Every structure is written in structure tokens, then in C-alpha cells.
What does this fold into?
Amino acid sequence: MRSSGIGVSSAGASARHRYRVLAARHRWERRAVRAVMACAAGIVAAGVGTWWVGVGVAVLVFAMHAGYSRFRSGVVTGWRRGAQAERRTGRRLARLDPAGFHVLHDRALPGRSTPTANLDHLVVGLTGVYAIASRRFRRGARLRADQRRVWVGRGQVGGVTVLAMRAAETVAELLSGELGYDVSVTPMVVVHGARVTREGVQAGEVLYRAARAIPRAIASEPVIYTSAQVAAIAAGAESLLPPMMEMLPPD
It folds into this structure.
């Protein structure tokens, strides 16, 4: 994927790493269970019909179990889908003009000695600084907000608004302290799957925008920084927010 700006880090890298670590656990046990189920089903089918029916049933059961294991709801699937959403957002953000915008991906936020929180994307540009979280929601469901909550279809979106706001506040505090002047950071959530209105959905100070609209939404804001200021802020962000992959403990 093409990267823009001075920061070179891969969108969704740490989420993809966590998915692979979780998926690797008990992999051989799952494969053994899958093989036993397929063989048992094939033997029963062959006893009722012919040998080729048994082979077909065994293959079908094996494939169905593999598909179920990959796409069922759970922590492992959540990490995989999260990584995919971040990578898709990264491709959208790569469309921003690199002459005016610097994009950093998958950056560690300070906390304990080993950070566990990360910022999916940070955009530093002529129109401002944006702390962006990528989220994938149920395809086709409508995203909306009331005075206190954000909803996707009939389900409530839990925690994303608060996390996006805290990430923006943390980055603003760090950059302001490093540069010696106030740097405002806009919190945003890029939505994949769910339907979002053209102008986005506002939840407090956090703006939810559809992935397809995010480059234009950022680039069309009023210009508030010079190119020199953008370069200084981006350099500060690069030094203060290391790639999350560098902060993860070894497997």
C-alpha cells in the first residue's frame, strides 16, 4: 500500500498481528476436529449411499466447518475484521495529496510501560489534525445518534465515541507540549459496512463518516496551517507516537 507523509507504518499492522496470534492458538486441534467430523460424516454417507457420495459429504462438511470457524462471531474474527477495516481506511487516506497531508498509521498511545492502546490513523494536514478510528459495522444497517448514544440498526455502539475522544485529547496534549502551542485534534470514526448520511453523524465532538467520504471530508475543510506548520506537527507526531508493532512484546 502506498504511504504518504514522513511516517511509514502499515495500517492495521498490530490488529493483523493479534489476529494471527489468536488464530494460531489451538489451530491443530481445530483441524483435527474438522477432519474427524468430515470422516465420520463421509463414512455414514457412504454406508447409506455409495463411496463417492461419502467423499462428497466429507468434503462438504470439511469446507463448512472451515468457513464457520473463520466467519463466526468472536474475538478472533473481530481482530481480522478490524485489521481489514484499518487497511481499507489506509487506502482511502492514501488519496490525500502528500504535498499537504501526512498520514501515520497504527501508532501507540502512551500509557503503561507496554502500551496496549493504539491510534488507528493520524492525519496532519493543511486543514488540521485528525485522530481517526476505523470500525466495521453490520453491512446495510443505518448508523444514527441521539443525545447520548450511537446506534447501528437496533444495536448500540459501545465505547467507540469515548475511545476516539480520549485518543484525540491524548494526541492534542502531547503535540501541544512538544511544540509549545495549542494543537487541536479532531476525533473521527471511519465507518465501514453501515450506512451513514452524506454529512456524517455527529456524536458529541466525534464525527462518524463513511469510508468513501473521508478523503474529501478532510481535504475540503478550511486551511488553518501552513506547509511549515504541517511539517513541524507531523515530525512531532512521528517522534511522540511510535508504530504499535514496535511496542508489542515478542510472541
